[in-house]
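**Fold tokens**
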Amino acid sequence: MNQFKIRIIHVLLALCFISLMSDMLNAQSQSLNVDIKNNNVFQSIEGFGASDAWRCQFVGKNWPERKKEKIAELLFSKALDDTGNPKGIGLSIWRFYIGAGTAEQGEASGIKNEWRRAESFIDAKGEYNWTKQEGQQWFLNKAKFYGVDKFLAFSISAPVQWTKNGKGYNGNNKDGEINLKPEHFGDYSSFMIQFLKHFDNKGITFNYLSPINEPQWDWEKKSQEGTPATNSNILELTKRLNQGIEANKLSTKIVLGEAADLRWLYSNYRKPERGNQIDYFFNKKIDLKHLDHKITGHSYFTTWPVDSLIDIRKKLNHKLSEYPNLNYWQSEFCVLEKNDDIGGGGKRDLGMDTALYVARVIHADLTLANASSWQWWTALTIANFKDGLIYLDTGIEGDMYNQKSLQTNGEFHASKLLWALGNYSRFVKPNMVRIEVALKDNKTLNEQYKDLMISGYLNKETSEITLVVINYSNENKNINISDFQLDKMYVTSKDKNLEAILVKSKNISIEARSVNTLIGSLNK
């Protein structure tokens, strides 16, 4: 090789080295600094959950044991596999749906979709059958087995024999009153008390009872069970439940709200008899021993555009600040509204787009509204819709959502949304407190919500800190956390499912379009 060629090679190598060093220095200079202010404490976390509504009834009762065991593991397990990756998302709250008896009515219920009907533990003669809702009971027992911390029972309609129209839905009544005959308020409350007593005796204590769900809707459609209710209807039922819990020496707390839209928590929002729930139920005039000091609401129709996502939660937080000891739960959500990011609720999506959209909602609910709990709508779905954590289908092209065959068997698929929720539910544990984490990027809140978002949680007993970082953008990001000793990192992205990642550098790379959990402690 002649001297000229050697010199050319040396020049090229030098240029490559300079380019590499420039990239490294550029990456370091573009790293975003994160400041953890662990002394600035916000809400205490009570848990993350999902409901068993509708789909668990058939899967838990009829599906092959191997498949439903795996589904339960995905939802509830806190264990790690041989490679150190989580086997499941470790839900800490499980919501059990108390059915109204439309399943026994069959086609006469008016609800065409069998998957949206539900059995009832009590019949028209007033006789109880505790073998009902067998599939839901299977999942309830599995949740108990895996160590789920808290259980919530919720009702969305009185048993059909006591409703005004004999149906589980409300029909054409538009006055907003509960679909319950006045003489059966006592029967309805006694039924829920007997439900609590039965499971308490079986070793499963329901920590919470939510008696009314989304009372602002009229529930006129024949699509599922449901009833409207005025605030005064809810209060009357709550007083009876409070007496029943006291008389039977139960530990269950009543939780109210389940507002169909967060705006009904802090404003009339065109329905004065069913709105302003915070003021109505938590003013000083109402003092019920077994009414828990928390309000619950649903994030539907408040997530798009991004400025609405932010503004509505700020307004909710402002109202909550008037009641310093009142906790807020976001207790139900799936994608319903149309939006530019993922289109809307139609058509299922097992990928990262929906996972990131929902992760941003979780972040907003926790950091802007100070939610102490966040709960997804339904754990399982057979619909071609963005409403499940685990998707069920037949596996047969052209007949994917056959409702009849899926009652006994089918295929199941864990979505990226499942694992993204796991970035919170598996590692942000009950009794941890949210702490201030400042991202020094000079971006507005609206800009951050389309880019990089971060929230922090402290275990007061161990001083362990958990950070959840969402990278909504299409570019990798580098962050530098001063005085933070990173022990573990778990990543959910297009090719990772809550995957454990080894990180040695102080400069932490956050993959594009990903949700990340960082666990560590502050250097002393």
Residues 34-43+435-522 form a domain with the Immunoglobulin-like fold (CATH 2.60.40.1180).
